Amino acid sequence: MSKGAKSQKAILTLVLLIALASMFAIPLVWTVLTSMKSAQEFAKEPERFIPRHFVFDNFSKAWNALPFPIFVRNTVVIAVLGTFGQVLSSSLVAYGFSRFRFKGRNTLFGILLATMMLPSQITMIPVFLIWRDLGAIDTFIPLIAPSFFGSAFSVFLVRQFLLGIPTELDEAATIDGAGYLRIWWSVLLPNSGVVLATVGVFAFFANWDAFEGPLIYLNSPDHYTLSVGLRMFQDTDGSTAFEQVMAASLIHILPTIVIFFCAQRYFLKGIATTGLGGR
Amino acid sequence: MVKHRPRSLTSKPGFWGFLFVLPWLIGFVVFTAGPMLTSFWISLNLYDLHSMEFVGTENYRRLLFQDEIFWKSVRVTLTYAVVSVPLGICLSLALAVLLNQNVRGQRLFRTFFYMPSLVPSVASALLWGWVFNADSGVLNQGLSVFGLPAIKWLQDQNWTLFAFILMSLWGSGGPRMVIFLAGLQGIPDSYMEAALLDGATAWQRFRRVTLPLLSPVMFFNLVMGVIGSFQVFTSAYVMTSGGPNNATMFYALYLFRNGFEYFKMGKASALAWLLFAFLLLVTGVQFLVAKRWVHYEGEAK
Fewer Cβ atoms within 10 A, N terminus or C terminus of chain A? Predict the structure, then answer.
């Protein structure tokens, strides 16, 4: 290929990428711009793309229109505890699957992987009945507790990672008299920060995003999470104040974007690992 | 060798391994296997959370032969799956191929494409509800630039499903694209060089080298995409509540309605089992067909 053709191709690629990136960005840009319109301007010309005057009071209005601080607190409590449970349980279970031989291990691991493809609906109602019988409806327990039993996705990720840590480290620790729990705690955990961060970010996002679970289990507005609460926002008002709904949505989006930027590298690597079957 | 004290059962490594796996195993029995069986039992009953009456296969019979909304929801969900999954896979692959060229700002573009997948599902539904707004939404404004008439995206039953498919494509730059990109980056340069030496055109290189090597990734995305289509819930619940005229009554939404709004737990469980059986069948067929088109490296053909 000649040099000219090569640079032509590079320019074409760049133009295509910019065009596509703009299309992908429009809905979010539109949201941000809408959230910065004053109520008066929105009422007069809601369709205007760039506001005549930029205002920021929609964020405080949205924040005060609902018990927003309570929703945020509830969501943070669930997400943080859920993330902790997921990291703890997946590292323990992955340790068992990657470092030990026992009867039925491969069968169990196969079952674990298969549960990844199970539709959640198949267990939804009986699990609801369990929590109802335990009197846990309208508490955070049904939303947090399952995280402490590991999930196929995170166990798989951690196991792939542990398989890459040389067993010499464990053996050295064994010679020093360390037991298995000790090895898990002081050899494997410190060495798997990367994958645990990945699992943690995924778990946090999943909890932050969760809608159907909170919708089923949380009844009183005091216990609502952001996902469930935001929808109430849309309902309470017959004539939807989109400029405020958009501001509220942005408040919901912001933490995930911040976390993504901090943990981008781990996060994308984790996704690639699952998709490529750990190769 | 180090001399060991006589070992009790608890010092056997195998026992410890089992112990470490136990949290998951307990969770599996209590939250997955047990509930699956219970779910099947409930599906044979009429159950409104208070009284239970055994009716055998009546729930299934009614769903399959008397329930028009059930069939509508199957049609809606299948149409959505058949259109949005292949389209989404193609778009993700195209984005990944573009990103895989050595262009400036590759990481920046990747972040741009990924961004929509970071938007929590409720926020995304609210945001798209506004994009699709018939009177002042940005989409109709875009259409009017080209002289096209405004469309009632979420009120006109001929367009709603299309709107949902469009919305799903917005997420094409997410996990699926990242997986494709990693797959592309894993293709050894030597393969491409060999193809170049043989005089293969760009399309031939893509068709004969890239695609076969990506087929396992493609397969993973296909299986997960189809399963994901049957889980569409939040967007339908928030944006349209299944309307108009059940045009967006996705399967998962119909199931939720029956279970947690009408408290027909038996019917909802039957819906769940029909879904499970169907997905098992579809996934099984996909695995069988995969033998013909999915190429695993290091495997003799």
Answer: N
